[in-house]
């Protein structure tokens, strides 16, 4: 458990542990940023595309499609990157495709990248779902197991081999989920030819969102010098008015290099500096990073410029990387969640990366719209249900002060075979990748290792104990949780989490239509969990489906009125319990989203308070009123934000 009591010693220990943990990972995964020493070339746009519809989905490998231009090995179509491929065409077999798809793009690389041997050229894929293999000019450069997280490879030597040729990038992506993937799934072949066509198979999944696939986030080429800043780790603290930035810079490509670290405020003034690769920067009269609606200037970020100088016999290289840094602390007691030593109440949402046509494809317009809606409704937080979101989204959270519970793709761990070592090892690797990617975001205040696993099964105890301890060793500065919907007394992982997160759907999946049971059942739920574990509780999901435009009074399920009353009945109980140990409420869901087809889903899950096109349902106004009231009660707001109607 994180303790606020002995912050000084505790923080120093944490810092060393975090640096040790960072060393266990091979390399860093800094977000690619341009600087005087680094260039970035975005490869977003149209790529050539083909799904391998051969019966075993292996034709692409048998015929080595990566060796020549994709259009020379068969027909191709245009495919936007980033985007899920599923909803781009009118072809139902592509929407529901399972197996390998192939992407290809030729890139003209600046001549200097080729001629200058002192330049490292890296290809980086923001994420592709699920398993990816990357070739450059027919040579395999990397493969990656898992969606939602970035991967990269150095390609300089390959593009230098024949500078007269454009650089041809081929990426094969396979969306098949097995008992050992995260999320898990299983492939079921059905051989009964009296009922199913020959070769019929389905992908079974145990989670409630469409298994969108393809290259979901931007693909980039970027450069660094050959001696470069590979990773930076920061852990922040403060005492009275003085902020502390504990940092460590990892360098690759040289055994000796000089480092200059400069911390600048918003106006570009230097507030602290050092010439050591690790140490503590002290900031007098610190501007802390505060959540949205908790302070008049939320999301304050300093800039930490790391300048690296390395010399060899012939020349001097300089690498410059600038990291945004928010100075804040996070801690947990048995009844509170503290940010900067002050109680923080999560009034926010669960989201999905999901929209029409793009599926899970990265889209700035959608991201900015969603942030505007979050701020409009007075939400101060969200959970990245049920997988890590794009880094650009976390950067927005840092800047706007939106607090994040960062969840890994451990959703739908229901089959007992998914608790075996192979699954656990992969889950540990994914946590390594997630913490490595997101450790420096001020907005990220807690890790969630899973959503609604079968945590009552006997092997769940060892599984979650190992996973949570591993995550705490990776990052001792943040609390760790997983989201439960199992019975409080039988939940095997709860003793190991710092915060209890519970999902429940009273008068929906249980006692449908009986709104009157909500107060009693929700109250009992809280008392049971707190009584057994004495840990703070977040209602991490609650809600009801509403088909927009469906109305009834008295309220009936699936109408906007019913959704409203479910929310209001829960809010009454939250208001009693937040005076005790309930530290947050996150609505399920921010917006309607696509799911697999099934008899309980009407073209997707309709529990959004906004439609999939981001228009408000009646429930959005209920939440807006409530969240602004909570903010006015618990936060320190500037006059212009006091009344939402003035926005
Ligand atoms: C919860 C799941 C979430 C679902 C939601 C629902 O965590 O992924 O979409 O139920 O059924 O149990 O709407």
Poorly predicted ranges (pLDDT <50, ≥5 residues)? Answer: 1-12
How large is the share of residues in beta strands? 25-35%
* C-alpha termini separation: 40 Å
What general form does the structure show?
globular
How do the strands line up in the largest sheet? 25-26-27-28-29-30-31-32
Number of strands: 32
InterPro entries: Beta-gal/glucu_dom_sf, Galactose-bd-like_sf, GH, Glyco_hydro_2, Glyco_hydro_2_AS, Glyco_hydro_2_cat, Glyco_hydro_2_CS, Glyco_hydro_2_N
Family: Belongs to the glycosyl hydrolase 2 family.
EC number: 3.2.1.31
Pfam families: Glyco_hydro_2 (PF00703), Glyco_hydro_2_C (PF02836), Glyco_hydro_2_N (PF02837)
Please describe the topology of this protein.
Blueprint: H1 7-24, E1 40-42, E2 45-51, H2 59-62, E3 77-81, H3 92-95, E4 100-107, H4 111-115, E5 119-125, E6 128-129, E7 131-136, E8 139-145, E9 151-154, H5 156-161, E10 167-174, E11 185-189, E12 201-205, E13 214-215, E14 219-225, E15 228-239, E16 242-252, E17 258-264, E18 270-274, E19 278-283, E20 302-311, E21 316-325, E22 330-332, E23 337-339, E24 342-343, E25 346-350, H6 364-377, E26 381-383, H7 391-400, E27 403-407, H8 421-438, E28 444-451, H9 460-474, E29 480-484, E30 500-503, H10 518-533, E31 537-541, H11 560-577, E32 582-587, H12 618-634
Parallel strand pairs: 25-26, 25-32, 26-27, 27-28, 28-29, 29-30, 30-31, 31-32
Antiparallel strand pairs: 1-14, 2-3, 2-4, 4-10, 5-9, 5-14, 6-13, 7-8, 7-10, 11-12, 15-16, 16-19, 17-18, 17-20, 20-21, 22-23, 23-24
This protein binds beta-D-glucopyranuronic acid (BDP).
